[in-house]
Recover the amino acids of this structure.
C-alpha cells in the first residue's frame, strides 16, 4: 500500500507550490527524520519540508537531488535500477550492471543518503534483496540500501516466517543491514494505543542490541482507515517513545495527504495547504534536532516501564538507573555516553494529562541536569522543568 501511495504523492507534490554490515558513519549533527513520500522537485515545497524539521526528503528520483540539496535535505534515491526486480529470482550479473550504472550517475551527489529497494518484503524475498543490497554496499560504501520491514502485527503469511523474531533474524542474516527500518501504526480512532506498538519496539530493539545495529521507526502522521487524526500529544508520544527505546531515525507516513479513501490531515492536505498537523510535526521534529547532538553520542542500555508494563515490555531491571519516576504513567530508557557518563530519558505515556516527574534513583546522583529540547543545553532538572506534557519526554544527565 505504501509503495502505491508513494507514487501518488510523488505526482501530487508537483502540484503542491557482526555478520551484518557496520552502521553508517555517525554524524553528530545529523538525525534522520524522513517523510515517507516521493520527494518533489519543487524547491519551495522542499524548503517547507526542511522548515518542518525533516532532514530526509523521502524517495527522490535522480533529477530531484539538486533541489533536495538546495533545500538542505538528504534523500534516498528511488530508481528502477535498484528497485524494479522480481525479488524471488534476481539475476546477480544484471543487477550489478544496473547498480553500477546508477551509482556512477548519482552516488557523488551530496544529497544521496541511500538507495530504496523495497517496502515490506516477505522473508522469501530476502535472498534477492540481499544480492542488490550487497552490491550497493560494495559499489557505494557508506550509503544505505534501504529496505523497510513489516510491523509485528503482520500475519505469518505476510512475514513468510512463523514468528516476527524469525522474520527479523532472517532479514539480518540474509540482507546484512546497517539499520532496521519498520513501520507501526497504533494510534486508533477510539483513542487507544494498541499493545503492538510496544511489542514491536521491544522486538526490534532486542534484535538490534543482539547484532549491533540501529533502528528507524516509521510512525503515523495521517488519519486513515481506523487510525485517528493526530494531535500534538500523539506526535510527542511517537517521537519520545522511539527515542527512549534507542531509535536513531524517525519516518512519517505521510507528509502529503493522498487523494483517496479516508486519508486526511497529514501535514499537507490534498489541496497543497498546511494543516494543523504540520505544526504538530514541526514542534516534535525541532525538539529531536535540539537533542540530536547528545542522542547520537548515546548507547541504549535498558528500557523499562513503571507500574504495569504493556504486553511484551518489562519493569526496571536490577541495574536500572531508576526505580520509579513518580507514577505508573512513566517509562524510561537508560543510556551511556561515549565518555562513560549516564543518561536516562523519561516519557509521560499519558496522552491526555501532564504529570510532574520525580525520579527515584537506584544510586543517588550528585547532580541531575536535563538536556533542553528547545536549546540543546544542559541545565539543572528542577522547578517547572519536572512537568512533562502529554506524550512528552525529558533527557536527564546523571552526574555521580
Amino acid at each position: 500500500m505504501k509503495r502505491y501511495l508513494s507514487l501518488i504523492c510523488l505526482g501530487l507534490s508537483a502540484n503542491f507550490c557482526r555478520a551484518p554490515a557496520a552502521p553508517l558513519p555517525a554524524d553528530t549533527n545529523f538525525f534522520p527524520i524522513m517523510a515517507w513520500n516521493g520527494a518533489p522537485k519543487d524547491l519551495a515545497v522542499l524548503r517547507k519540508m526542511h522548515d518542518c524539521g525533516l532532514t530526509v526528503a523521502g524517495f527522490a528520483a535522480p533529477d530531484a537531488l539538486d533541489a533536495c540539496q538546495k533545500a538542505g535535505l538528504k534523500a534516498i534515491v528511488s530508481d528502477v535500477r535498484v528497485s524494479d526486480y522480481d525479488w524471488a529470482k534476481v539475476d546477480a550479473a544484471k543487477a550489478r550492471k544496473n547498480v553500477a550504472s546508477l551509482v556512477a550517475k548519482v552516488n557523488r551527489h551530496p544529497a544521496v543518503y541511500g538507495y530504496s529497494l523495497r517496502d515490506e518484503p516477505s522473508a522469501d524475498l530476502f535472498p534477492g534483496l540481499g544480492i542488490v543490497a550487497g552490491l550497493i554496499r560494495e559499489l557505494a560504501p557508506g550509503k544505505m540500501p534501504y529496505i523497510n520491514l513489516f510491523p509485528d502485527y503482520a500475519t505469518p503469511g505476510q512475514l513468510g516466517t512463523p514468528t516476527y523474531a524469525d522474520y527479523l533474524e532472517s532479514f539480518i542474516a540474509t540482507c546484512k543491514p546497517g539499520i532496521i527500518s519498520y513501520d507501526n501504526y497504533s494510534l486508533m480512532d477510539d483513542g487507544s494505543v494498541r499493545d503492538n506498538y510496544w511489542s514491536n519496539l521491544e522486538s526490534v530493539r532486542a534484535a538490534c542490541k543482539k547484532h549491533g545495529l540501529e533502528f528507524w521507526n516509521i510512525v503515523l502522521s495521517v488519519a486513515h482507515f481506523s487510525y485517528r487524526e493526530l494531535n500534538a500529544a500523539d506526535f510527542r508520544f511517537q517521537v519520545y517513545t522511539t527515542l527512549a527505546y534507542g531509535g536513531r531515525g524517525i519516518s512519517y507516513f505521510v507528509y502529503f495527504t493522498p487523494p483517496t479513501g479516508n486519508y486526511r490531515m497529514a501535514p499537507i492536505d490534498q489541496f497543497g495547504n498546511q494543516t494543523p498537523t504540520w505544526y504538530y510535526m514541526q514542534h516534535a521534529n525541532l525538539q529531536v534536532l535540539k537533542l540530536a547532538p547528545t542522542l547520537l553520542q548515546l548507547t541504549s542500555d535498558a528500557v523499562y516501564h513503571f507500574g504495569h508494563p504493556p504486553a511484551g515490555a518489562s519493569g526496571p531491571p536490577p541495574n536500572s538507573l531508576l526505580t520509579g519516576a513518580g507514577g505508573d504513567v512513566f517509562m524510561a530508557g537508560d543510556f551511556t555516553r561515549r565518555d562513560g557518563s549516564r543518561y536516562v530519558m523519561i516519557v509521560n505515556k499519558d496522552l491526555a494529562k501532564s504529570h510532574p516527574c520525580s525520579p527515584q534513583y537506584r544510586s543517588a546522583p550528585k547532580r541531575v541536569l536535563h538536556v533542553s529540547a528547545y536549546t540543546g543545553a544542559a541545565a539543572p532538572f528542577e522547578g517547572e522543568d519536572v512537568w512533562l506534557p502529554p506524550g512528552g519526554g525529558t533527557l536527564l544527565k546523571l552526574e555521580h
About this structure: The two ends are 50 Å apart (CA to CA). The chain has two domains: 2-295, 298-399. Confidence is low (pLDDT under 50) at residues 6-26.
